């Protein structure tokens, strides 16, 4: 399978490393970067994978799959170019879909090209079960994001609670997934993934919690509906070389890529 990775940050680098270590049946034919001179020589570049900077270059590369891990500004230009080039497109930066019409625009290109936009679970789990449950009527979907109090520094949480003097878990925000994505953009990706799998961005409830005793980022997903009730809890550790990124995000991408290339899909 011919693969192009968009982005050379922590997640993209880890995905490349894992695919190589696992000897996945994938040919990484190019990486899209902003600054080729700076990005050449980073970890994972030992095989001299060609670097590209323009979405228009995808057409001549003929990829089967394009994976984005470069930030929300990259989603539409690279996604539209990938679909036009006959590739499926897997965006990590689902926060781009908080913008009205962005997802519809990308899906219109997918329909025209008869290709697919693939949403991975990212740092979450149970998204397959939530998406399956949504085939019947869902009543509620609640997504709680709990992080160490210090992890919320530099965000809107500082204006809503005293992060330095908390003695117990404190929910400083409760609202829709759309509101969470707009007010706390660093959590927008997970908010939009949950929303897309279930009730949508306006009917999905997000709770953001600062916990002075937490040592990992916790996601708790609770859903009820005609299927029954589910409750899923994950305590995610960060990438070893980048504490701002969840290791599970990179692993979810590796799973998606391998599922597109292997004869057995799980």
Describe this structure in words.
- With 266 residues, the chain is of the alpha/beta class.
- It contains 9 helices and 12 strands.
- Strands 3-2-1-4-5 form a 5-stranded parallel beta sheet, covered by helices on one side.
- The radius of gyration is 19 Å and the shape is globular.
- The chain starts with a strand and ends in a 5-residue tail after the last helix.
- Specifically catalyzes the NAD or NADP-dependent dehydrogenation of L-aspartate to iminoaspartate.
- Belongs to the L-aspartate dehydrogenase family.
- Pfam families: Asp_DH_C, NAD_binding_3.
Short description:
The chain is an alpha/beta fold and 266 residues long.
Secondary structure topology:
Blueprint: E1 2-6, H1 10-21, E2 27-32, H2 36-39, E3 51-52, H3 58-61, E4 65-68, H4 75-84, E5 88-91, H5 102-113, H6 127-133, E6 138-148, E7 170-176, H7 177-183, H8 188-197, E8 205-211, E9 217-225, E10 228-236, E11 238-239, E12 242-246, H9 247-261
Helix pairs in contact: 1-9, 4-5, 6-8, 7-8
């Amino acid at each position: 399978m011919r693969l192009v990775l968009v982005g050379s940050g922590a997640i993209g680098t880890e995905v490349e490393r894992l695919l190589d270590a696992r000897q996945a049946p994938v040919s990484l034919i190019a990486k899209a970067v902003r600054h080729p001179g700076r990005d050449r020589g980073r970890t994972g570049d030992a095989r001299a994978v060609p670097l590209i900077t323009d979405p228009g270059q995808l057409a001549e590369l003929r990829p089967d799959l394009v994976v984005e891990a470069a930030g929300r500004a990259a989603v539409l230009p690279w996604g539209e170019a990938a679909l036009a080039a006959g590739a499926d497109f897997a965006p990590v930066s689902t926060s781009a879909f908080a913008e009205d019409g962005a997802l519809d625009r990308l899906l219109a290109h997918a329909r025209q090209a008869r290709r697919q936009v693939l949403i991975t679970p990212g740092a979450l789990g149970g998204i397959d079960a939530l998406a399956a449950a949504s085939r019947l009527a869902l009543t509620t979907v609640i997504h709680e994001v709990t992080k160490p109090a210090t992890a919320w520094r530099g965000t809107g949480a500082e204006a809503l609670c005293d992060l330095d003097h908390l003695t117990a878990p404190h929910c400083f925000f409760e609202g829709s997934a759309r509101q969470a994505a707009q007010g706390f953009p660093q959590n927008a990706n997970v908010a939009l993934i949950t929303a897309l799998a279930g009730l949508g961005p306006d009917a999905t409830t997000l709770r953001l919690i600062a916990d002075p005793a937490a040592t990992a980022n916790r996601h708790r997903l609770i859903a009820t509906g005609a299927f029954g009730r589910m409750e899923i809890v994950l305590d995610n550790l960060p990438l070893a070389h980048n504490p701002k990124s969840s290791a599970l995000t990179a692993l979810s991408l590796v799973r998606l890529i391998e599922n597109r290339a292997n004869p057995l899909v799980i």
